[in-house]
Specification:
The protein is α+β, with helices and mostly antiparallel strands and 414 residues long. The protein has helices spanning 39-48, 74-91, 105-112, 124-130, 144-155, 175-182, 220-228, 254-262, 338-353, 375-383; strands at 25-28, 31-34, 55-56, 164-167, 172-174, 198-203, 209-214, 236-243, 266-273, 276-284, 287-291, 297-298, 318-321, 328-335, 362-364. The radius of gyration is 20 Å and the shape is globular.
C-alpha cells in the first residue's frame, strides 16, 4: 500500500489533553507513563520528538521539480521521523528533552541533517531523488518498504552518526547477518569491489557537516581506513517491513505491535490508514498514538541564526484504534550496542515469537539455506557507491526510473 497526503480527518484529531485518566499504562517509545499522575512528563516527552511535516517554498527538487511535498510526501516525512528518533538516541539519549530556551548544538546538528535542502543528508530532496533507484519518481507516493530501502542507502554517507540501517525482508530477522554488518570494522575488506564514487564533506562555521556527491573514482584504501577506525559495534537501526493482512489488519497481530512500541529499543512504527501515513510512537489500551505529517508549513532555513525550531515539535499527537491501521507497516528498533541487540532478540522471542501461533516475523540465529545471501548489504556498507546519488544531478520525469525488486506490493501475506 502506498500513501498520499490528505488534510481530512474522519472524526478530527485527538490531542494529548484527551488521554483518558485510566489505570492502563501509556507507552511512548519504550517509556511507561500513567495518565493519572504523569501527564506533564508525558506531554514533554511527546513534544520532544522531532516532527516532520509537509513543507512549501523550499528549493525545487532536482533543479526544477516540486517546491513542496503536499499530497505526496507523507511517508517520506514519517521515515524522516523514525530515523531522526534513532539519531536522537544515538547522539542525545532517550532521556533527552527539548528546551527551546536552551541552545543544544548536538540537537541542532541532528535537526539540520533533515532540513529541506539538497545539501542535507536526509532532506526531502535526497530521499525523493534516491527513490528513483526504487522505481519511484519524484512526487510519487512511497510505501513503508520503499522509504526503508532509501534510508538504508543514504545512511552510509553519514559518517558522524556511523549507523547501520538494516531492512529485514521476507518477514525474517537473521541475527548473524546483522552482527556481520555491525561488526564490519572487524571483517576482511580485501575482497570488496572497486568503489565508483566518493562523498565529500564541507564543514560550516558551526561545525555542521554538509555533503556533496560526485561520481568520479576514489581511493578504495581511504574508505577501508575509515571503516577500520569505526567502533567495534556500529549502532543499528533495524527496520522490519511487514504486511499484516490482505485489505485489513489481522487482529492477531495487535498485541505484537503494542509490544514493539513498549520496547526500550523502539523507534516507532511507520504506516497509517489507507493512503494516509503516520509515525506511531505509542499506545494506550487498543489505541495507537501518532505524529501526523499532514500539515503544510513554510520552509525554515535552519542555517539562519534567527530561525526557530518550534515548527519541528508537535503539541497535538493523534490517536486511532488498532483496527483502523492499514496492514502495510514497518516497525523500527535502535540498538546502540551489541548488548542492546542481544536484549532485543531475547525480547522478540519472549513477546513476539513464542506467544504467537503465527508470529508477525521470524527470528533466526543463522541464515537458513533457502534464503539468498545478504552480500549486497555488505557491499553497500563497504563501497558507499555514490553513483546512487546521480539522480540529484538531473531533473526527474513523471515516468520515474527503473523498477525495484523490493516493492511494497511484494510482501508475504501473513
Amino acid at each position: 500500500m502506498e500513501y498520499e497526503g490528505s488534510l481530512t480527518y474522519e472524526n478530527g484529531p485527538l490531542y494529548y489533553e484527551d488521554f483518558p485518566r485510566t489505570d492502563d499504562p501509556l507507552y511512548i517509545l519504550g517509556e511507561k507513563y500513567s495518565t493519572l499522575y504523569d501527564r506533564d512528563e508525558l506531554k514533554h516527552d511527546i513534544l520532544s520528538r522531532i516532527w516532520f511535516t509537509y513543507r512549501r517554498n523550499f528549493a525545487a527538487i532536482g533543479g526544477n521539480g516540486p517546491m513542496n511535498d503536499t499530497g505526496w510526501g507523507c511517508m517520506l516525512r514519517c521515515g524522516q521521523m523514525m530515523l531522526a528518533q534513532a539519531l536522537v538516541l544515538r547522539h542525545l539519549g532517550r532521556k533527552w528533552r527539548w528546551n527551546p530556551q536552551v541552545y543544544d548544538q548536538i540537537y541542532w546538528k541532528v535537526l539540520s541533517m533533515f532540513q529541506d535542502k539538497k545539501s542535507s543528508y536526509y532532506s526531502i530532496h535526497q530521499i525523493a531523488s534516491m527513490g528513483d533507484s526504487e522505481g519511484k519518481a519524484v512526487g510519487q507516493w512511497f510505501g513503508p518498504n520503499t522509504i526503508a530501502q532509501v534510508l538504508k542507502k543514504i545512511s552510509v554517507y553519514d559518517e558522524w552518526s556511523n549507523i547501520v540501517v538494516h531492512v529485514a525482508m521476507d518477514n525474517t530477522v537473521i541475527e548473524s547477518d546483522i552482527r556481520k554488518l555491525c561488526r564490519l570494522c572487524d571483517t576482511d575488506k580485501s575482497n570488496s569491489s572497486d568503489i565508483n564514487g566518493s562523498a565529500h564533506h564541507k564543514t560550516d562555521s558551526e561545525g555542521f557537516t554538509n555533503c556533496t556527491f560526485n561520481t568520479g573514482q576514489t581511493n578504495q584504501s581511504e574508505t577501508r581506513q575509515r571503516f577500520m577506525k569505526s567502533e567495534r559495534w556500529k549502532p543499528l537501526l533495524l527496520i522490519i517491513p511487514l504486511r499484516l493482512g490482505l485489505t485489513d489488519i489481522n487482529p492477531v497481530y495487535f498485541d505484537s505491535l503494542k509490544s514493539c512500541l513498549g520496547l526500550r529499543q523502539s523507534v516507532g512504527i511507520i504506516g497509517g490508514k489507507p493512503n494516509h501515513a503516520h509515525w506511531f510512537i505509542g499506545y494506550l489500551g487498543e489505541e495507537l498514538v501518532y505524529l501526523d505529517p499532514h500539515t503544510t508549513q513554510l520552509f525554515v532555513n535552519l542555517d539562519d541564526k534567527s530561525s526557530t525550531d518550534d515548527s519541528y515539535h508537535c503539541p497535538f499527537p493523534g490517536r486511532m484504534r488498532l483496527n483502523q491501521l492499514d496492514p502495510s507497516v514497518a516497525v523500527g528498533f535502535y540498538c546502540g550496542t551489541e548488548e542492546d541487540f542481544d536484549d532485543l532478540c531475547l525480547t522478540f522471542h519472549k513477546f513476539i515469537i513464542r506467544p504467537c501461533k503465527n508470529p508477525m516475523f521470524e527470528l533466526y540465529k543463522e541464515r537458513p539455506a533457502h534464503l539468498p545471501s545478504c552480500d549486497s548489504d555488505i557491499e553497500t556498507h563497504l563501497a558507499c557507491n555514490s553513483s546512487d546519488f546521480t539522480v540529484l544531478k538531473g531533473v526527474q520525469g513523471a515516468d520515474g526510473g527503473a523498477g525495484s525488486t523490493d516493492s511494497d506490493e511484494e510482501f508475504e501475506i501473513l
